[in-house]
Every structure is written in structure tokens, then in C-alpha cells.
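Hi R.,

Here's the chain you asked about this morning:
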Amino acid sequence: MAKKKTFRTGLCVFLCILLFVFGLSGGAFFGIERLRPESDPLPSGDISVHFIELGNAYTGDCTYIKAGDTDILIDAGSRTSSIPTIAAYLEEYVTDGVLEYVIVTHAHQDHYAGFATGTDTDSLFDLFSCETIIDFALTNQDPDSNMYSNYVRERGEAISRGATHYTAQECMDNGKSEWDLGAGITLTILDSYYYDHKASTENDYSVCCLISQGDLHYLFTGDLEEKGEEYLVEYNDLPQVALFKAGHHGSKTSTTDPLLRVIRPEIVCVCCCCGSAEYTDTDANQFPTQDFIDRVAPYTDAVYVTTLCVDWDEKTFRSMNGNIVVSSTNGTTRVECSASDLKLKETEWFRTHRDTPDAWVA
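And here is the predicted structure, written out as C-alpha cells:
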């Protein structure tokens, strides 16, 4: 069994006690402000995490992280048609055209379409210079399937142009699990049982990572599901986190109690087209689900969602919070939204489609 990694948690424990005393479930937070986006880029040493809207009605993940002077991209869904939207957003921040780290969590279209284009379309590997690519160690995909073979080709071309490639398991095996980004910021590839064991669902192959600066931690688990989350807790000494990207778009099969009890997130961001019937016509199972909400509610009410489905048949959508930016400057964490600063519980969609958990009742 893998040895657990250790993170400094003293201050987080102290803050957790204070939050409990003053009533975390009522929405009280220390050092969290909700502001509108600022145009100036953050100075070196600061961290900003950007959950990017994808320009269509499909659910998908694309997270850009500015960590000091380092540019990190995690995933690039939801369709190849999202590439111009993602590229235009990145160009505002990646001024030298270089992504120091690209992490591709798993081989599902809504997470890696932007890297898996045909030969006649530029992928994000073509549009930006990528220094280090870290991706999934295993997949259940047919190696001859169109999208997967496109991904392998595009990744190979990026490697031929100078990118270094590791699978998540190779990071574990070769002492490459922790990367120093400078300014006291680290990127840690967390260990997972399903890096080297077969899973019944592609989601459990997800590469999981943690961005840390002192006692501030930001957790990203792709679409990891319940069993994978249990192993994640078992294999890693996880800290309490300032930010958690909701697992699997706020589905009922992720963001489960064994993980939440350990990480106790202050802010949760959901990358999805809220209320879309893309995967199911059953309202209760559409993202973000009631099960997800009920489990998160005891820890935080600071839940934000990128996009809202207006009409799935017509494939129409609009921003819910829009592009969500969670940033940390001098120990103060802020949530900045391009469209609305309403928490999920304050939206009309929530009042119409979900029940308010007891923890969110004033």
C-alpha cells in the first residue's frame, strides 16, 4: 500500500474549530470575499483558479490555474467546438504562449476533447507550447476509437516538439509526484489505487492533484467516483481545503462523505451545464444533484456553478455564475464570477428544482 503524504494542517484545524464555533453551516467564512473579476493579472506568488465556461450547452471540465509565474491547464472539455473559447480565455493570461503543466485527468470527451482533434483542426497542444504533460495511466477506451487515437497522436506531436510526458503512475514510480512551482507553491499528484488497477468506470482512472501554498490547499479529482474517493483518502494524508472542484460535475456518485469528512471544503465549484438533460431526463439526477447538495451542505454553502441549461432540445444555455475565479492574495481567498455572484442556493434554478438542506436554512 502506498505511503501517505503529509501536509501542514495546523492552521486549517484551528480555522475549522473557529468555523464550527461560529456556525459554518450558516455560511460564515474567514478570509473569503466575493468580488467581481478584476482585469489586472495577479502578481507573482499569488494563486488563481479559473473554472472556464465552455461556450456550449454540454457539460465538461476545463480548469486553468495561475500559480505565481506558472501556467497549469487541467482538462479541456466539453467538445472540440470549445477550443476557440478556451484558447481565447487562456491567451489573456498565458502571455508567453507556454503552459508549464497540462494535466489530462481521464479519457472522456467532456474532459479531453480539446486535446483530441482530427488532423485538420488545431488542438490545444498545437495552440500552446506544453512543457510537461501528465495524464491517466489506464483507460478502458478502444485504442482504435476515433477520439482516443486522436488524443494519442496529438499528445505524441506535442512530445516531439519538446514536451515531457508522464502518466500519473509514472509520477508515483519516478519520484515526480511533487512539483515545486516557486513562491512557496507546490503541485502534488496524489496517489490512487486506480492508477495501476482496472476500474469498471473510466471516471475512476482520473488523475487527482493538489495545489498548495502554506496552509491553503486546492483539490482537483476529475470525475473520481465513490470507491476511488475512498482509496484517495486511504492512500493520501489529505488536508482541509479552501477549494474543491466538485467531483464528476456534482453527480450523486462523487463528492462522497468519506472524502468530505477529511477535506471539509470552504468553497466548492461545479463545472456543468446545470439542469441539462444531456445524460438523463430525470431531474433528480441532473447536475448538480440533490445527493451532492445534501452531502456538501454541512461543510459550506459557498457552492458555485458555471453554466445553466435553458433548453436542452434547442441546446440553448446561459451563464449561471459564468467563469468562476477563486484567488488567494496575502492569505485572503476571493470568489469572482463573470456573470453573477449568487451562490447556488440563491438561484432561481435551485429554488425550482432542489430542496434546501437543513444546513442551509438560516
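One quick note: The longest strand covers residues 303-311.

Cheers,
M.
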